[in-house]
């Protein structure tokens, strides 16, 4: 190897070391707010700062860097179910199965998930707009009774435009089938839709939301005290709505899509040419 090539190679190695240190610093910063955010979404979040520093890197190299530093996300354990569908209340058919959702305020999906604390379980009722993925209603309770679901549903109803006709979709849990909850929906002029067979698939968006809040935003960890849960949930909802990019939204955040009512037609998973430029830099 010539002296010129030796020094050129050393400069490249030094630059790569500096670049990787910056990437790890930015990833740690993002993980403080979103502890289990996936590699692709992490890359999307840190792209502006990397480009400002003149750093180009592809997703594969980020994945490799995180793996070498033991920063990849482990597969989560399966949780418990909170749905009790063996009740005597009336149920409704799934009317959104083949529906084309073209904007916000058309379909609201609901679900309840548990949050583990050292003092016992808390239960989080959630309502999400099916188009924008924005959480439009939520409530924490230490009971699985209907009141928590009704409070979350009331928040979601209040944010609907006066001329909107929205359909409420949920599983067949007793909280959503009880007379008080059905009356609340009917009073708001909403359509009612429920899962019929494999509710995990028929209410997949709500199930996915539960997973994101637990696996990425820290609500899956055991929390010391019940009194801490409300603040942690509010923080997680804020980050989810306003900061976490969604692949299904072309890497936009739910609040922006909910406000604008637009998802770009041609989503881009990462900037064109990044991998090629990274290979040139890496030699």
SSE arrangement:
Layout: H1 3-33, H2 39-52, H3 59-68, E1 107-117, E2 120-129, E3 135-141, H4 146-158, E4 167-170, H5 174-177, H6 179-187, E5 191-194, H7 199-202, H8 204-215, H9 229-242, H10 254-260, H11 274-282
Write out key terms for the chains shown.
alpha/beta; 5-stranded mixed sheet; 11 helices
Task: Give a quick rundown of the structure.
The protein has 283 residues and is of the alpha/beta class. Helices cover 45% and strands 13% of the residues.
Describe this structure as you would to a colleague:
This protein has 283 residues and is α/β, with parallel strands linked by helices. Helix content is 45%, strand content 13%. The chain contains eleven helices and five strands; from the N terminus they run αααβββαβααβααααα. The chain has helices spanning 3-33, 39-52, 59-68, 146-158, 174-177, 179-187, 199-202, 204-215, 229-242, 254-260, 274-282; strands at 107-117, 120-129, 135-141, 167-170, 191-194. A five-stranded mixed sheet has the order 3-2-1-4-5, sandwiched between helices. β2 (120-129) and β3 form a beta hairpin. α4 (146-158) runs parallel beside α6. It starts with a helix and ends with a helix.
């Amino acid at each position: 190897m010539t002296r010129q090539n030796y020094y050129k190679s050393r400069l490249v190695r030094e630059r790569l070391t500096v670049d990787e240190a910056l990437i790890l610093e930015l990833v740690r910063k993002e993980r403080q707010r979103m502890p289990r955010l996936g590699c692709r979404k992490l890359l999307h979040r840190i792209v502006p700062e990397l480009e400002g520093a003149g750093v180009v890197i592809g997703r594969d190299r980020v994945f490799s860097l995180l793996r070498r530093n033991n920063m990849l996300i482990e597969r989560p354990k399966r949780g418990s179910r909170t749905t009790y569908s063996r009740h005597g209340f009336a149920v409704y058919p799934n009317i959104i199965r083949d529906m084309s959702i073209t904007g916000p305020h058309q379909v609201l999906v609901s679900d309840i998930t548990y949050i583990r604390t050292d003092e016992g379980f808390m239960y989080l009722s959630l309502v999400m707009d099916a188009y924008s993925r924005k959480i439009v209603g939520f409530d924490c309770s230490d009971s699985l009774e209907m009141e928590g679901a009704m409070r979350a549903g009331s928040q979601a109803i209040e944010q609907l435009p006066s001329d909107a006709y929205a359909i409420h979709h949920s599983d067949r849990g007793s909280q959503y089938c009880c007379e008080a909850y059905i009356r609340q929906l009917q009073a708001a002029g909403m359509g009612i839709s429920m899962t019929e067979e494999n509710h995990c698939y028929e209410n997949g968006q709500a199930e996915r939301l539960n997973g994101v809040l637990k696996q990425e935003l820290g609500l899956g960890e055991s929390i010391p005290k019940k009194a801490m849960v409300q603040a942690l949930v509010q923080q997680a909802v804020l980050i989810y709505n306003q900061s976490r990019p969604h692949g299904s939204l072309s890497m936009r955040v739910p609040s922006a899509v909910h406000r604008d009512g637009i998802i770009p037609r041609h989503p881009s998973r990462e900037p064109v040419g990044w991998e090629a430029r990274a290979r040139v830099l890496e030699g």
